[in-house]
Amino acid sequence: MPASAVLEVPDDVPAKRAVLAANMETAINGVWDAEPMLGEHICVIGAGVVGTLVAYLCAQVPGVNVQLVDINPERRQLAEQLGWHLLPRNKSPMTRTVSSTLAAILQAYAKPLNGLAVKGALSK
Fold first, then answer.
1. Which of 7, 14, 68, 80 is packed most tightly, with the most Cβ within 10 A?
2. Are 1 and 30 in contact (CB under 8 A)?
3. Mind listing the pLDDT tens digit for each residue in 42-73?
């Protein structure tokens, strides 16, 4: 990469926030692909860094209902701080039955989940 393509992180941006930049880029691309719109229901599976950022971005769209699903109960505290109730995969009504009210399921986990055959965002 040429030096001219590199940007310095401004001094007033804390390192704890700057480290999220690459993950935020991934999350933004996922949200752009899903195109969440007013009144839609979005299910994000995986409450790690990328999944939580995806859920956060989707929730910024007025009228979008976001459900965050994860098998790791240690991620519940962060989800609740952001105003969501983290659901384990087997308790999620959105992931058990995909209905016409569910606009997208966004996968944000590192390894395949047994028994869940969702391949990205659903057709609108």
1. 68
2. no
3. 888 889 999 999 999 999 999 998 888 888 88
Range of the domain at 39: 14-107
**What totals of helices (H) and strands (E) does the chain contain, helices first?**
5, 3
Q: What is the pTM of this model?
A: 0.73
Amino acid identity of residue 119, one-letter, is K
Please name the residue ranges forming H helices in the chain: 15-18, 21-34, 49-59, 76-81, 93-96
114 belongs to a structural domain: no
Model pLDDT for residues 81-94, shown as the tens digit of each residue: 888 878 776 655 54
Contact 89, 113 (CB under 8 A): yes
Residue 95, both tokens: 């992931």
Whether 90 maps to a domain, the answer reads yes
